[in-house]
Amino acid sequence: MPTFPSFDLSNFDLSNFDLANLDLPDFDLSRIDISKVDLPTIDFSGIDLPSIDLPQVDTDRVVGLARDAAYVGIGLGVLAVQQAQVRRREIRATVERQIRQLVDAAS
Asked: Which of 4, 32, 63, 107 measures 20 to 30 Å from 38, CA to CA?
């Protein structure tokens, strides 16, 4: 479980801090020159980052589940095409029957 550093904020007084007094329009980011920051010289050894233990992943199981999902998707696609063909045949038969009825009624 990661641990985060604790901070003692009991002596931190923000009661006199007024955001309305900040003059943000005069804050110009273009005046900040980050080219002078030399990252290789910064000592990050004092920073204690939390470690996260990730569970082992069974890659064979993940691959199997992905394969099964692909098979199900393809199967649903095949069923949808077959269902569309059945509906097309039913509509064709209905239209042909109605045309025959109109021809018989006209003669």
From this structure: 4
Residue 11 resides in a domain: no
List per-residue pLDDT tens for the chain, 107 residues long: 556 666 666 677 777 777 777 777 777 777 777 887 787 887 777 777 788 888 888 999 999 999 999 999 999 999 999 999 999 999 999 999 999 999 998 87
Kindly state whether residue 72 falls inside one of the protein's structural domains. yes
Domain span at 87: 59-107
Residues constituting the chain: 107
What's the number of domains the chain is made of?
1
| CA atoms of 3 and 51, how far apart (whole Å) | 8
| 94 within some domain | yes
Contact (Cβ atoms closer than 8 angstroms) between residue 5 and residue 48: yes
Q: Are 2 and 52 in contact (CB under 8 A)?
A: yes
How distant is the alpha carbon of residue 19 from its chain centre? Answer: 36
